[in-house]
Amino acid sequence: MSIKNICCIGAGYVGGPTMAVIAQKCPHINVTVVDINKERIAAWNNDDLSSLPVFEPGLDLIIKEARGRNLFFSSNVEESIDKADMIFISVNTPTKTYGKGKGMAADLKYIELCARQIASVSKNNKIVVEKSTLPVRTASAIKNILDNTGNGVQFQILSNPEFLAEGTAVNDLLMPDRVLIGGDNTKEGQKAVNQLVEIYSNWVPKNKILTTNVWSSELSKLTANAFLAQRVSSINAMSEICEKTGADINEVAQAIGMDSRIGPKFLKASVGFGGSCFQKDILNLVYIAKSYGLDEVADYWEQVIIMNEHQKQRFSDNIVQTLFNTVSGKKIAFLGWAFKKDTNDTRESAAIKVADNLLSERALVSVYDPKVKKERIYADLENLKTRSDEENKTLLKVHTNAYEACKDSHAIAVLTEWDEFVNYDWAKIHKAMQKPAFIFDGRGILNKDLLENIGFSYYKIGSGY
Ligand code: UDX
Ligand code: ADP
Where does the UDP-glucose/GDP-mannose dehydrogenase C-terminal domain start and stop, copy by copy (predicted)? Predict the structure, then answer.
């Protein structure tokens, strides 16, 4: 029997775009995305497609095509669970902030709530798909809840982790490197796997759809993120050596990336990785390793996080040191606040930590980001609880124009690699700044020769001379 009704619980950065693409590619399936956050649902239903809660290039056109046809956004969670043959769980799994595993383990309370709700509402057999990144063996916890609190109906649990990267989500979903589906090795389990394979087969070549057991699928997602983050920390570690020795990290990256065993991707030195996944998933991996007594494994992966924290810290330290050891009362302009370009997401963005460090030195920070809203920036700082909201708002100003943000500043720090920064009128910016005018390029995107000719003192991450 083919799937006719899908419900996705969680209308976030993963649930929203993923379901939009499934709906676009499977017009014969009704897809309803639900969320307890009514404002978010209202934003997904907004007529103005530039106000969707998630900014992703190309997503607006997909929403335009499918919304109201076979794609629906609703806050009526129970009704759409009831109607669905297949339910995706795509809720957040933040790092625990309390109790055992605090600061490391994934907090599964939202997952558990979903499982309980699915169990209590379901009146017929359903397939439950884990879309959120989860610790290995979570499926058995979900199954336990479903089987013990349900109405006697059968549930099949599949793991189908999402590998999309923000900023390129639409392309990643339309042309994934692979789709991973983990299921039970029973007849019923394999039947459920095949039903999900059938959905993806509408646009993904069969040889890219990989089926495994549930545990391999869950662990593969954590492993992929750990390997990717490790690559960034590795290149960032080398960037510090470059700065001391006169090597250039872009040249080193090019040289090693031409080795086909290493490959050229994910070798861009930066002010530190951010995003909702890398740190959370590695901490989760560290916690899992520790809970099995695998201390060496835990220490090995924890170092990836330690390196990332160091990279952010040394970026802000370098700004303070270069500005004659004091930034107190000096205006420092931030270009970018998002954790990477082409997204409005700021979770774990390096900009937050760098700003916090500079504000503690009493710098006056002015921020420009093409997609991040002012309220989000202040909320990010408030979450740190380093100082009062009032103080943050006095010391940090948010601008909607990059030239205004840079005007009268002593230094500019590039925190996100937005394409538009490269082509700014840098001579005009220089003219309006305090002298000497400094640029700290945390993404290595600007043209050193051009900027130095204009008169800037230019510092690029991973290049010392
Ligand atoms: C990541 C994984 O790539 C994706 O497969 C998974 O589903 C979710 O986590 P995402 O966090 O959206 O995706 O973005 P990604 O492109 O991986 O970038 C993560 C961070 O690493 C960003 O802050 C980015 O700027 C940084 N990064 C990435 C670098 O600093 N250098 C690089 O070479 C690549
Ligand atoms: P991700 O990046 O993984 O998509 P987000 O935080 O952007 O994470 O989205 C997760 C969404 O899940 C949030 O919008 C949140 O309101 C929603 N959510 C969490 N728990 C529930 C629940 N029990 N029922 C419905 N929605 C939920």
Answer: 333-448
Are residues 93 and 68 part of one domain?
yes
Q: Ligand 2 in contact with 165 (CB < 6 A)?
A: no
Q: Is the C-beta atom of 349 inside 6 A of ligand 2?
A: no
Shared-domain flag, residues 200 and 218? no
Chain position carrying tokens 């190309």: 58
| 326 in the same domain as 459 | yes
- Neighbour tally for 352: CB within 10 Å: 21
Determine the structural domain holding residue 364 and report its residue range.
213-465
Using DSSP's 3-state secondary structure scheme, residue 54 falls into coil
**How far, in Å, CA of 139 to CA of 160, rounded?**
11
Q: Name which residue sits closest to atom 14 of ligand 1, judged by CA.
A: 165
Q: Is any ligand 2 atom within 6 A of the Cβ of residue 91?
A: yes
Reported as a single tens digit per residue, the pLDDT across 37-62 is: 999 999 999 999 999 999 999 999 99
Closest ligand 1 atom to residue 348 Cα is 23
Last residue of a domain, one of 195, 212, 229: 212
How many angstroms does the Cα of residue 275 sit away from the middle of ligand 1?
Answer: 7
What is the C-alpha separation between 160 and 355, in angstroms, rounded?
37
Alpha helices in 369-441 (DSSP H): 374-384, 389-395, 402-406, 426-431
CA distance linking residue 14 with residue 20, whole number of Å: 10
| Ligand 1 atom, smallest distance to 169 CA | 12
Q: What is the pLDDT of residues 235-249, one digit of tens each?
A: 999 999 999 999 999
Question: What pLDDT does 140 receive?
Answer: 87
Residue 10 burial (CB < 10 Å; 0-12/13-18/19+)? buried
Return the structure tokens found at 112: 């558990």
Instruction: Name 301's Cβ contacts closer than 8 Å, sequence gap at least 6.
Output: 226, 230, 282, 285, 286, 289
Both 131 and 270 in one domain: the answer is: no
Probe residue for ligand 1, chosen from 254, 277, 307, 346 as the CB with the greatest number of ligand atoms within 8 Å: 277
Residue 223 marked in a binding site: yes
pLDDT for residue 273? 98
Question: pLDDT tens across 204-219, in order?
Answer: 999 999 999 999 999 9
Specify whether 26 is catalytic: no
CATH of the domain at 294: 3.40.50.720
- Is 217 found in the same domain as 135? no
